[in-house]
Amino acid sequence: MFIIGCHLSVSKGYLAMGKEATSIGANTFQFFPRNPRGGASKPLVPEDVEGLRAWMDAHQFGPILCHGAYTMNGAAAREETRDFARRAIREDLAKAGQLPRCLYNFHPGAHVKQGVEAAVPLIADMVNQAMDQDPIPQYVLLETMAGKGTEVGRTFEELAAIIERVERKDRIGVCLDTCHVYDGGYDIVGDLDGVLAAFDEVIGLDRLHAVHLNDDKNPLGSHKDRHEKIGEGTIGLDAMAAIINHPKLRNLPFYLETPNELPGYAAEIALLKSLRKE
Ligand code: FE
Ligand code: FE
Ligand code: ZN
Per CATH, the architecture of 4-275 is what? Predict the structure, then answer.
């Protein structure tokens, strides 16, 4: 089954996101559990969660994806910033763990001149304290990053170094963002097989549980992180078709984070479905 959806707003609740996804031809969605700039997380309404669960069952949904706030930086130099991140991710995991078939993804963080070596243990420690509770999502995913500024997670090695230090190894994984890896210097257009072989060697493809499907406004290795609409960027439609059909990727859930409103997402989902080989 082709599992495809896009980022939606949580403002009208969880069942509303399920219905919105179905209305645009999607069978999953991604959302922020709180205002992406930070701020308080609204408590779950049990009827809303049960409504979403029934909707997902009735409409053959794949796993949904909760995306941590961009402002969370467990590797920050300032202790207050790290403390906010530690509290936020712990709360997020508690919430996402109560949602039906919900995975959790977050940006590892930025080392802000302290160096990657200093950041890795800080990030792993944050993840360990957040995962030390139940229920939590089946998988907590580190997102592959573009390498903008001092972002950690641009290379597969950096992600592997964090995973190495995570205690609950059966619950930690990776979400591959096509725009970010291309920006990070991995040529998924010219050598998708080679990039996946490198991922397998360094991290292990068994840790890959989700894909952010985005085209890129900038060339390979540019470290800019500017998403483009599917087929309109430097990755292009042929590479997108190869990605969604690749034997090692095709069974993963795909989430669009392209610059679109709902009609644009509906059109992209229809386009990608037309390119999908069954
Ligand atoms: Fe992200
Ligand atoms: Fe992403
Ligand atoms: Zn991005």
Answer: Alpha-Beta Barrel (3.20)
Q: Work out the pLDDT band at 37, boundaries 50, 70, 90.
A: low
Residue 56: helix, strand or coil by DSSP? helix
Measure 136 CA to ligand 2 centroid, in angstroms. Answer: 21
Please confirm, yes or no, whether 246 is among the known catalytic residues. no
d(CA 202, CA 210): 17
Q: How far apart are CA 97 and CA 243, in angstroms?
A: 29
Active site residue: 111, 207, 209, 227, which one?
227
* Residue 58 burial class via C-beta count within 10 angstroms: exposed 0-12, middle 13-18, buried 19 and up: exposed
Write out pLDDT tens, residues 198-242.
999 999 999 999 999 999 999 999 999 999 999 999 999 999 999
Tell how strand 28-31 and strand 208-213 pair up: unpaired
- Please indicate whether residue 209 is annotated as part of the active site: no
Q: What is the pTM of this model?
A: 0.97
